[in-house]
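Entry 14. Structure prediction run on the chain below.
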Amino acid sequence: MDKLLARFSPTLGRTVLLAVLLTFIAQAVLLNIGLTYANSIDRSISDKRSENVLSQYQQSSLYLMNDINNLLQLLQTSEFSGYFKSNMPLRDANTEAAERRALLDKIDTLYISPQTVNAIYLIGADENQAALRKRAGSSGFEELGHLSIDSLQFAKLDQLILKDHDQFTSYGKDDFDNVVSYRSKLLGTAEADAVRDFVSHIEDRLILTNGGLNGVLIVIVLADGFFESGLPPDYSDQSIFSILSPDRRLIWTSASNEEARQALSGGQYRFELNGAAYASRIVGLAPFKSQIVYSVQEGKRYFSEHGLFVKMIVLSAAAMVLTLLISWFYMKQVFKPFREISQLLRSQSIGGEKALRVIPEQLGSSRFQAASMRTKLMLVLCTAVMIPTISDGFLYSRFSTQAAQSQMNASLKEIGDFSGMNIKTRVRYLESLMNQLSVSQKFETYLADRSVNTSSPGWDAITISMFPGLNEVSYFVLLDEKGNAIYSSMYSNNKDIFKTESVYLKEQDDLYWISEYVDVFDHKTAAVVKRMPQAQDGGGATYLLLVPKESVFENVGYGLTSTYFSISDENGKTVYQSRLYPEASQQGFLRFAEPIPDSKWSISIAYADYDILTRSREYQSQYILIIFIVFMLSVGGAMAISGILVRPIKALVGTMDAVGNGDLRRQVAFEGRNEIGSIIQSFNKMVRQLEMEIQHNLQMTEENANNKIRENDLIAMKTRAELQMLQAQINPHFLYNTLEAINMRSLRNGNKEVNVMVEALADLFRYSITRGGDEVELEQELGHVRNYARIQQIRFDHSFELELDVPEPLRRAKVPRFILQPIVENAIKHGFEGWEEGGLIRIAVSETNGRLLLDIRDNGIGMSRERLDWLNADMRQGLGEWNGQEGSIGLGNVYHRLRLFYHDDMAMEVSSARMKGTSVRMDLPLAEPIR
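Output returned:
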């Protein structure tokens, strides 16, 4: 233990290294905690962002689809479809033109946006019914003179349209090619061209159709950016939205990258794009059978993109440099007295003075030097380690929190963008509903005859079945120009409660929203108002006022945990506000506000960052714990170092007392290479010099004698070694030279067989005595077998042949020495006994599943079953029990050497039959794959 402490005794460099090591450990732990905290916040924020964004887009898409579905339901009513059931092509031109004009006015009054609808097809049943196309934004209809439900059926197009009615879908060229036929005998040329034009217009476009179930085929061709209208204007491709049809075909995607489009089209919802992996989540769009596929990049970390990791690494490096500087400066002060004492003692010993000089008792006058060794070390280590650790811990926490808040702001903005689009689609939905109500025949009836008794049993009230969008409406009221209720969808027997201030009734044709309207339940809410067309009797203006349900805006916040939002108009009046929306002065909230696209409204969002605060407190608790642990390690390290340093000092004091009493043989047993060790070494050297002066002659004599003895011993050892080396070299060199002489003599005499045998024998001998490892390449072992076979072939007058079947790569495989030659020797000796010709020895090598398979077989006389069983049993006996009888010596030797080399990871089997030869198979592991 003392030797170990002396060997690793504290030095200035080692103590500084300890301080840096403690700082490194503290920084590594703090860095790990900080990044874990940051990644935890990142995952939490990313997951909530994805969940909220998907929820907002899902709601927006549903409102967009419901709006189009409501339009489809409206177009199926007799007010719109009646024109296409009235044999208009057979009517007189004036009647037809008037009816068409009335239909066009009604459709124009719906204010269908070109951003959502590209065109509307209204197709009659046969050639006696009209077929028209109305493009969004156009001023009139386009006639489709030869298009009818009959012609579409003749072309078999109804097989597609009918099965997907009332569902959003899209058909590609392959879909039409597999079904549509333009060669029907019932289909004329003009009709075929009309069908072909119809198909070309709806091909690869998103459509919604009623399937012609009411006698009129209505096809709404949606705009290319229909589902894109639910995305914010500045939305990027960092996450991808896609829409699947009821049969799970891709009908739209926001991905601009062709690789992503192909992956999604092929039903691959996990794919790679530009080296990044994307995972997808699928949600439904009930009541429609379509689905949303939301693909988000996996493993994407906000913090790695914004340099948090780099900042933390730089801080850690700076902390270790600061620790190095502080500890180096103060540890030099700690060891300064020891260095000065060491220098004084060294100069004393080098000078060779016999009179000892006095060492000053006060080498340092500062308070720091006056402190004890333990106190100084504790101060240095704690200062050098704790200051950087505390500073970096604070900065880690600050940077992590700032990064989390920055990401939260970015996430909140994205959620706000999608929430704004969600509100926009809801507003558009309600405005479309208002336009649909305004063209209702029932309202025209009210305008024509205000004396209708709405409470009579025969009155057919306006219901949700007529306008499905009414399920989002609390109630609507028809008002006169003074604000008196003419009709209300609820409490119709008490119209006075719907009295509305005339200030809300504007003289404008476009619909408009009013804020802070007080409804019949005395709640402030938003309402939409539209002035109705003038009645034919010239009466005063009427207004339709629609009050949406509170849930219309309340559901915008569905799924937004810890999130509150408010909607305000251009004048700052509140349109809607979460009940718990925090005051502007309330702390602990992240806030975001921006205008809602294509409207005069704006949305404000407040997010309670409870997660960040909670995790920040957890991080701070862990940070304090690490500070405490590092402090205790610093104190423990200081105490351990001081203890190690004080122990040799006490030993030195004791030795000094003994030397002072005349015992010059006393030495301090300390081998440490530090400042204290330097003092001890200088002191020991000085004492030794004094003792050497006294015993100089005796020591010199003894030393010379010992040196002479050692010199003689070395000379003798050298002589013996040279003799042994010479003896070791005589035999092989002598044999090599002798064989070479025989070889040269046989060549001069023209005896080629002798030459072959001598060369083979020389190679055999060289392989046998060559030093090296126990393993050789298979090629070397095969060469050894070839040399042996060449000698035996000449000896037995070429009565047998050797055949090798070894793939080139396997020739580099490593095998133990001398595992093939004994088996070949057995084959020659026992297998071909009495043979004069026709013998064959074949060695085949192969590789299977990382195993090397060797098969050595001959076509000799073989052996009986009893002899074979005995041979295998004798070969497998333990080394202590092995008989080693004739016939099994070579095989047993090979088997036991393989067993010793590979243990149980080998197999060796002998098989044979009378007059059918013998086979020896070995199964050995390959040390490494062979290529």
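The longest strand covers residues 276-285.
Filed with the rest of this week's runs.
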